[in-house]
Every structure is written in C-alpha cells, then in structure tokens.
Design goal:
- By secondary structure, the chain is of the alpha/beta class.
- It has one domain: Rossmann fold, CATH 3.40.50.
- Helices cover 53% and strands 13% of the residues.
- It has 7 helices and 5 strands.
- A 5-stranded parallel β-sheet has the order 3-2-1-4-5.
- α4 crosses α5.
- It is globular and about 35 Å long.
C-alpha cells in the first residue's frame, strides 16, 4: 500500500534511512515538495540534489489540484482548521492513502495518520 508523507517526515533522519532501504513507493504532495525544496535550497542544496534524494527513497510527487483543494476546504470546515494547513491530509484523503507525518497530533482527529516512529515500529 502506498502512503503519503509530508515534509515533516523528511526531517527525521532515521525515517529517511528507512526509506532508502525500503522498496516501497511513497507519495509526497506538490505543496509538501514546495516546502521541502525551499528549505533545502536555503541549506545550499540544488533542486537536482533534492530530486535525486527523493527518487532514491522511491518518493513520487503527486499534484495538489482542484480535487485536493476541495478536500482541504471540506476538512477545514469539519475541523475548524485553516485549509492551507491541511494540504497533506487533503492529498492523503484524495489519494486514498494513510498519511505519515510528525504532525500527527494536528491531524489525527481529522484522518488516519502515523508518525514516522509509529510507521517504522509497525513495519519492521
């Protein structure tokens, strides 16, 4: 089963090591990619380096389009949260996958979510 990760998961070095050793494929929303790439560029990395790193971890960038925007608004209305903060959950819901995020406390009342630690523990 594919899973969607958000940018917070990519800041966990142990999780990245896990992904590098895994043969499973993962999704990353285009908005999470934007945030992660921006952060990496500020650190002196290039887009090519970031893309190669994500490819090594079998991470596919998935769009954040009209469907995901509508899902974010729907989730925001039911949770009283800002739709801009719900890009990851909205993308996971629209893709029909579980979200892996280190912001699980923010999202667990909205959709199924696992922290990177929970995910690695459950998938040894």
């Amino acid at each position: 089963m594919k899973r969607l990760i958000d940018e917070s998961a990519l800041f966990d070095k142990d999780f990245c090591q896990y992904l590098l050793q895994s043969e499973e494929e993962y999704y990353l929303s285009a908005l999470s990619y934007l945030e992660y790439l921006s952060w990496q560029l500020d650190k002196g990395n290039t887009p090519t380096m970031v893309d190669a790193f994500l490819a090594e971890m079998n991470i596919e960038i998935v769009p954040f389009g009209q469907k995901e925007v509508k899902e974010a608004i729907k989730l925001a209305k039911s949770s009283q949260k800002n739709p801009m903060d719900l890009a990851g959950p909205a993308t996971a819901t629209s893709q029909g996958v579980i979200l892996i995020s280190n912001q699980e406390k923010e999202y667990s009342d909205i959709i199924p979510v696992e922290s990177t630690r929970q995910f690695m523990e459950n998938n040894k």
